[in-house]
Amino acid sequence: xxxxxxxxxxxxxxxxxxxxxxxxxxxxxxxxxxxxxxxxxxxxxxxxxxxxxxxxxxxxxxxxxxxxxxxxxxxxxxxxxxxxxxxxxxxxxxxxxxxxxxxxxxxxxxxxxxxxxxxxxxxxxxxxxxxxxxxxxxxxxxxxxxxxxxxxxxxxxxxxxxxxxxxxxxxxxxxxxxxxxxxxxxxxxxxxxxxxxxxxxxxxxxxxxxxxxxxxxxxxxxxxxxxxxxxxxxxxxxxxxxx
Length: 243
Ligand code: FPP
What we know:
The chain has a single domain, classed as Undecaprenyl pyrophosphate synthetase (3-Layer(aba) Sandwich). The chain has 8 helices and 6 strands. It has helices spanning 26-32, 37-58, 77-96, 98-101, 116-128, 144-160, 171-175, 223-235; strands at 18-22, 62-69, 103-108, 134-142, 188-191, 210-213.
């Protein structure tokens, strides 16, 4: 074997521009260990940090994560405040490391139900990072149906104000009334934890997404699992209704 024999470069498939993840399985992960559910969410927040870094290293432009749904308010006070605390800690850390990481933060959802402190942090993170290119979207007090209803109301208000006619509404125009205005639809939606459902996540935006469901709980989700999901995405034959 020649001393400097060239290794064949590994074929690197381009990642999707936009990956969306339902970070599911934190509660079961904690239960399996006899820990409180909040410990599962803390482990889930760590996984998010790792996977967000990995996405950035791979060249993913947009990462959208389901952090708290409009239905999650049904959970115990303790669990809700635990998740909010993790978000607060993460955003404070993100503000501190903003210049180093150069990640743009956006929030999809009705933030008015969050604490004034968390609302303020979200606003600060959004405005301080608006010039960066790689974007993380946190779905917070987010529901896909709620988002669509809000967009419909916003359009109805324009019609009522005489600004346009009902016929003026197009799919692109409606997309512009969503929280995700300006963000390309996710090509890939990943749900770990073995559950096979969408749970009110990005209903409008995922019309032609590829779904990859994985049998690993979110706190156990590793970089190699993301790589496997991307590889699976590349095996799909995307036809968008064509042949
Ligand atoms: C779903 O798992 C997870 C949530 C409802 C919360 C997700 C929140 C985090 C990962 C922490 C957020 C913080 C950052 C920094 C991203 P589940 O609780 O429904 O799990 P289960 O189905 O096993 O009960």
